[in-house]
Write a sequence for this structure.
C-alpha cells in the first residue's frame, strides 16, 4: 500500500481589491467601513474638487489635478472611509466626450490616488444632458442608487464634499451631510481641518 498523502488545507488569502470601473458604468460592492472610521462613505465631486474646472477633459494629459487633492484622498482612505467619486459628465450626451476618453481620464485619477496610498472605491456618474434624467446633480439619483445597492453603509454616516450648489442640493435631497470645498482651501484644506494629526481620525464635525 502506498504512502497516504495528506493534503494540507490552504490558508485563506485576503480578497484582492480591484480598482473601480473608470467609466462608472459597472459597480462593485463598497467595502465595509474600517475599524473606527468616522464615516462609512465620503462622496467626492470631481470637477472643481479633485481637479481644476475646465470645458472638458479628453485625454489624461489634459487632466489637471488640484494641488494636494490626491494626498487628501489618501488621508481619507487611511481613516477607514470608502471613497466614491460622484460626477456629472454631460459631454457624453452632447458628443464632446467619448466613453473611452472619459475612462482614460478617470483611470489616471484612480492611478494617481493609488500611487499616493489612497483608494477610490467607486465612480458614479451621470452621462445625460441637463433636465433629462433623475441622476444628474442636483437630483439625488446617483447618491440614492449608491446607498440602495450598498445597504451596509448608512446615509447618516456619510458625507459629500463638493464645490457647487448642485453638489449641496444633491446631498441634501439624498439625506447626506455636505461639506463645501472652497477654492481658497481646496480638498486638502478641508481634510486638514478635519483629520486629527495625532490619531489620523476625522472628528465628526459635520
Amino acid at each position: 500500500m502506498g504512502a497516504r498523502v495528506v493534503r494540507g488545507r490552504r490558508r485563506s488569502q485576503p480578497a484582492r481589491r480591484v480598482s473601480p470601473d473608470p467609466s462608472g458604468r459597472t459597480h462593485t460592492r463598497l467595502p465595509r467601513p474600517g475599524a473606527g472610521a468616522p464615516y462609512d462613505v465620503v462622496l467626492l465631486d470631481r470637477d472643481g474638487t479633485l481637479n481644476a474646472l475646465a470645458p472638458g477633459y479628453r485625454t489624461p494629459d489634459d487632466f489637471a489635478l488640484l494641488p494636494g487633492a490626491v494626498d487628501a484622498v489618501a488621508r481619507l482612505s487611511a481613516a477607514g472611509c470608502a471613497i466614491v467619486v460622484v460626477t456629472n459628465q454631460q459631454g457624453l450626451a452632447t458628443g464632446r466626450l467619448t466613453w473611452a476618453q472619459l475612462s482614460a481620464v478617470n483611470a489616471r485619477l484612480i492611478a494617481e490616488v493609488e500611487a499616493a496610498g489612497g483608494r477610490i472605491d467607486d465612480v458614479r456618474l451621470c452621462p445625460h444632458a441637463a433636465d433629462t434624467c433623475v441622476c444628474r446633480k442636483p437630483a439625488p439619483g446617483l447618491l440614492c442608487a449608491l446607498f440602495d445597492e450598498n445597504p451596509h453603509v448608512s446615509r447618516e454616516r456619510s458625507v459629500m464634499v463638493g464645490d457647487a450648489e448642485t453638489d449641496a442640493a444633491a446631498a441634501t435631497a439624498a439625506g447626506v451631510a455636505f461639506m463645501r470645498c472652497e477654492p481658497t482651501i481646496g480638498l486638502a484644506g478641508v481634510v486638514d481641518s478635519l483629520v486629527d494629526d495625532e490619531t489620523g481620525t476625522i472628528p465628526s464635525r459635520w
Q: What stands out?
A: Residues 99-115 form the longest helix (17 residues). The longest strand covers residues 82-88. Residues 3-16, 197-206 have pLDDT under 50 and may be disordered.
